[in-house]
Amino acid sequence: MMEWTDRHCRYFHRLLTRHALIYTEMLTTGAVLHGDRGRLLAFDPFEHPVGLQLGGCDPQALAQSARIGADFGYDEINLNVGCPSDRVQEGRFGACLMAEPRLVGDCVAAMKAAVAVPVTVKCRTGIDEQDPESTLFNFAETVKSAGADALIVHARKAWLKGLSPRENREVPPLDYPLVHRLKAAHPQLEIVLNGGITSLEQAQMHLGVLDGVMMGRAAYQEPWRLAGVDPLFFGTAAPFKTPKEAAAALIPYIERQLDSGLRLHAVTRHVLGLFRALPGARAFRRHLAIAAVKPEARAHVLAEALALVLDSGDDLAHIAA
């Protein structure tokens, strides 16, 4: 979710669910150690609980980055061993580390020694010619022994040779039963499922076996799905009954950000999928695409866009599909 789940996206998603754990986009240890930490790591307290996702392969650098993240107030530090992009491979982190479980274990142990917050790992079931069953089970045993608090498994392998990052999200088949078997073999290790989950009912089915479900692009592209998380999984009321109410609640945040020099599009780009399949959704997106990118655009542009969406009653009935 690089360049997607920035702090403005996370604030918006937190409006929709007050309980789900939200993650940052993956940040490399180089960026954390040598970049503009205020810009990269700062977040609004409203975002809690929020986890910092790191990319790297050097135990020392990851330990330092984890400590910095914990000092910033993140609730969890996650090591990404699942991203298949070429850029990530060139830096020797992400999914290519599935071939080096011992190194990943060293990284986890160093991070655990550096912070008091949970340290988790996100992985694939394997890469290229690896056998998913033996690879994933060996990997899980290694990170568990190193002290990992949870393992988030994208339930498909990554083909680093021959498939693009997008194809790696769609072409290799999903193997949910493999992740279920992993949980049965490690009942004390928190196992979270990722990959191909597009509805809350689907997530609920897996939660009968697993400890958690992660939604990525499905939640970003149709964020109103998140409005059903709190009543379905946490037994509390949804923060808003309609997507219009949720978008309107974002306006005070937008005004604060504009006053600090941010451009409107930096926030509104994350709400474009909010009204998907509802009357007026296309007009809403078109207005924001044209007006929100202008340097002088202010929060009233979002209000104008909202006026183009037709009210459709209690929209909570549509969030699970």
Describe this structure in words.
The protein is 42% helix and 11% strand. The protein has 321 residues and is α/β, with parallel strands linked by helices. It folds into two domains: 228 residues, TIM Barrel (Alpha-Beta Barrel); 76 residues, Up-down Bundle (Four Helix Bundle (Hemerythrin (Met), subunit A)), CATH 1.20.120. Strands 1, 2, 3, 4, 5, 6, 7 and 8 form an eight-stranded parallel sheet that branches. It is globular and about 55 Å long. The model has no long low-confidence stretch (mean pLDDT 93).
SSE topology sketch:
Elements: H1 7-16, E1 22-23, E2 27-28, H2 29-34, H3 37-41, E3 50-55, H4 59-72, E4 76-81, H5 86-90, H6 101-114, E5 119-123, H7 132-145, E6 150-154, H8 176-185, E7 190-194, H9 200-206, E8 212-214, H10 217-221, H11 229-234, H12 243-249, H13 251-259, H14 265-268, H15 281-291, H16 300-307
Parallel strand pairs: 1-3, 2-3, 3-4, 4-5, 5-6, 6-7, 7-8
Features:
321 residues, TIM Barrel, Four Helix Bundle (Hemerythrin (Met), subunit A), 16 helices, 8 strands, 42% helix
Summed up, the helix count is 16
Secondary-structure-based class equals alpha/beta
> How do the SSEs run, as a string of H and E?
HEEHHEHEHHEHEHEHEHHHHHHH
For the secondary structure, the number of strands is: 8
* Tally of structural domains: 2
What is the radius of gyration computed over CA atoms, rounded to a whole number of angstroms? Answer: 20 Å
Name the shape in a single word.
globular
Task: Outline the biggest β-sheet.
Answer: 8 strands, parallel
- Helix content, binned percent: 40-55%
| Multimerization status | single chain
At the first level of CATH, what is the class of the largest domain?
Alpha Beta
CATH-defined topology of the largest domain: TIM Barrel
Low-confidence stretches: none
Summed over residues and divided by their number, the pLDDT gives a mean of: 93
Strand portion, in percent? 5-15%
CATH arch. level architecture of the largest domain: Alpha-Beta Barrel
Task: Determine the CATH superfamily of the largest domain.
Answer: Aldolase class I
Q: Give the N-terminus to C-terminus distance in angstroms.
A: 22 Å
